[in-house]
Amino acid sequence: MFDSQVSTFEPGSIIATSSDVVMREFPVVVANSIEAIKSAMRKFALITVASSWGKDSSAVVALVIEAATQLRAEGVKARIRVMTSDTLVDSAPMVRLAKHMASQLEDLAAARDLDIEQVFVTPDPIDHYLVTMIGGRGTASVAGSDATCSVDLKIRPMQKYSRELAKQYGKANICNLIGTRHEESAERSARMTRRGESDLQPVEQEDGMHQMSPIANWAVGEVWQLLNGTVGSVGFETLDFSRTIAVYEAMGEFTCDTLSVNTSAKAKSPCSGGRGGCVICQKVTVDNSMDQMLGSYPYLAPLARLSKVIQAGHFLPENRTYLARSVDSSGLIRVFAGGYSVEWQANLLKWVLTIDAREDEYVEQKSQKTGRLAERRFGCLLEQEHLWLIAFSWARYGHQKPGEFARIVEAIDAGVRFEMPSDAEIESMKARAERKGSGKTLGYLKPKSVLTGAAFRDNWRDLVSAESACAPDLMITDGDRAMYVASSGAAHDTIGSAPVVSADLSALREQDGGFGLTYDEFKFWHAIEFAGGQKSHNDEMMFLLREGIIKARNGYQSQIATYQGLNLMLDDLRADGPIGSLAEIQAHPRFMTEDEAMALRAELAVETGALVANDKPESAPEPNVHEEQMVMDFAI
Fold it and tell me: d(Cα 36, Cα 51) in Å, to the nearest integer?
C-alpha cells in the first residue's frame, strides 16, 4: 500500500498493522510534500491555505512555511495567505489557539522575510448561527441533515474573500491548499477521490482556481509526528504546536500516536473524534469532545448545557412554528412544522443573554478583585448588532407577541436571569421528541383578504415634511421626499443601503467605539415605544428601518412590503382567534384542511406559487452538495 519513497496511499484501503507505516520513511514523506508545495508556489501568483488551526490544517501550514523558507533561500518570495473562518460560535480554546498560532505565524514570517499573511473571515451577522435560530430564519443543523450551518458560517465567508483575491490576482493564478486526508474516513476518501484531489499536483476547480491536498495520503500518526517533531526528527524548525497538542489532549485525543492508524471503515460523523469547532454543534449526536474539554475548561459548562438543550428541544412538536412566512397564489398560508416556535425562540434568547450577562458579571467581579481589567473567558454569544437583527426578524415575520424582544432585553438589563432546563428536564425533552412530521402540510389558514404587491411605505414619513428637523437624512433628496424606483416601476420609500440585511449601530457608539449613554438611551426609547405591546410588528419594523438601525440592499423594499402585507394578514387572523400553537390554528375558524384547500384551488383554477421574501444576499449561491461536503473536509 505504501511506497517507502513516495507519498502515495491507496484511497479507501485499511491499514491493519503499524509495520506498514514504518515502511514509510517520515523525512521522505515530509520532503515529498514540501517539494509538491514548492512546485505550486513557483507556478501560481498566490497560494492560499484554508486553515482552522486544527491538527491537519496546522500540518499543512507547517509544510507551507518550510516550502516558502526554502524558496526564499533561492531568491523566490512566494505570496501566501492563510485563511481562517471565525464562525463566532467556535469553542473558546480553539479561538484562542487560532489567534495564538496566527501571531506566531506572522512573527516567524517577519523574521524570515516571508510574504505570509493571516486573514480571518467571519459570516455576515444575518447568517450568525444563533441569529438564524433565534430570529426564526432556520433551525439547528442536526445529524442526518444538510450542513447548511457550515455553508453559512464557513463556506460563504471563504468564497467572499476568495472572490476578492480572484479580482486582484485572477482565478487561474491562485492555488488553495487544504488539509483533507483519505485516512479520516471511507466517506471522506470517496469524496476526495470524486473531486480528484491530489497531494502532488494542483487540480483545477469548477471556479477556475486550483486546489491541492498536500497531506491527502498522510496517516494521523504522521500528522502528530510533524506537530510533535523537533529539528532533529523533522528536519527543519517550525511553529511551536505545544498549545495545539494541549487542546487536542483536553478533547480526549491521543496526540503521541506517531505510528497508529485509524482503522475504522466509516466515520459516523464528520465532526467525530477530537472536534474543536462550533461550541453548540448539533451535527454530532453526543459531543464527547466538549464533555472531555470541561475537565480542562470548566467555564464552558453553560455552553455545553445550551448545546444539549438545543438538541433536546429540536424535535419537540411544541417547539415548532406551524405558520409559513408566505401566502400562496390561492391566498392561503400553509400550516406545517417548520422553524422554531415563538416560545422556543424567546427561551433561546433568554438563555443566551443570561449566559453572556453572567460572563460579563464574572469579568466585572474579577476586575474589581484584581484591580486590573479582566477578559471574558469566551466571546459574546450575541453582539449588539446580532440582537437588533433578531429584533428585526421577529418584527418582519410577525409571529412573536408584539414587544416581546423589548421585554426580554429590558428584563436582562434589570438583572433578571433565566435558568436553562435541568438534566432531568433535558432527558424528559429527549423522551418526547418526534422526528417525523417536519415539513408535512397539516392544513392552511385563509386570511379574509390577501395583501401583496403593495409598495413599501414607512407609515411615518407622510406625516413629516422633507424640511422638518425630524426627517432623517436618508429620506431626503434635495429637500424633497426621497423615493426608490424599482425595476418594476413601483416607487418605494428609501432605506439605509447595505449589501445584505445588516444592523448599523455606529451612530449609537461613544467616541471610544464602545456603547454607553447614547446606546442606553436608544434602548430605553425602544422599550418605551414597544415593550407594552400596543404597537404592531409593522410599527417596530418601520422604527428600526427609519432610524437607520437596519439597512439592506436597494430593491429590498419589495420584500419589506411583502412582510407588511403578511403582518396585516396575521393581525386579521388573530382578531378571530389565537394562532400560536398547532391546536389553536386547527381550531381557528379560518383553518381549512388540505382537501378543502384543493377544492378552493380548483374553484379558483390557480396553481400554487409562493410569494415570499428572501433574506439571503443576492450574490450568495445556494448551498449545494459539493459545498456541504467540502466544508467538513477543508479546514480540519
Answer: 18
